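[recover] target loaded
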């Protein structure tokens, strides 16, 4: 942090450079990974689903691709929003944790729905092979000709 300046005094080049370097430096993670976040923090935030609660959980959450992706997203959002002392945690609950947890713990459509009596693997959605040439490799082409194009 820079020292307070007298009125009319400009920030020095060193002060500006230091502020930009500090802003660009990635914040250190509190939790080493999503598993640590789930086992050391999240499980204490979320009550255990009771019979008839309309919620499901799987102790082997890491074996469900959707759960792993959603819980990783919840963890990464928490890691970033924890630095906002005003609205960070409210934003995290409202826009990240609550919607992801509702989707994860839904006993009908969520990935844990079949795990009420222990872990049960889910079959992936069926897909057919599309006709040859229908899709092209678009890697490296994002905005190549048009800065507003999505691909």
């Amino acid at each position: 942090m820079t020292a307070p300046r007298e009125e009319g005094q400009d920030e020095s080049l060193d002060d500006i450079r230091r502020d930009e370097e500090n802003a660009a430096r990635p914040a250190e993670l509190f939790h080493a990974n999503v598993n640590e976040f789930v086992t050391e923090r999240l499980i204490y935030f979320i009550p255990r689903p009771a019979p008839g609660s309309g919620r499901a959980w799987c102790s082997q959450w890491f074996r469900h691709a959707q759960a792993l992706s959603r819980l990783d997203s919840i963890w990464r959002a928490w890691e970033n929003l924890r630095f906002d002392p005003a609205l960070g945690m409210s934003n995290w609950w409202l826009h990240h944790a609550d919607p992801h947890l509702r989707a994860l713990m839904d006993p009908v459509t969520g990935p844990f729905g079949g795990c009420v009596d222990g872990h049960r693997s889910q079959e992936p959605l069926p897909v057919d092979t599309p006709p040859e040439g229908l899709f092209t490799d678009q890697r490296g082409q994002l905005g190549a000709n048009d800065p507003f194009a999505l691909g």
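[recover] notes: Helices lie at 13-24, 34-45, 65-81, 88-105.
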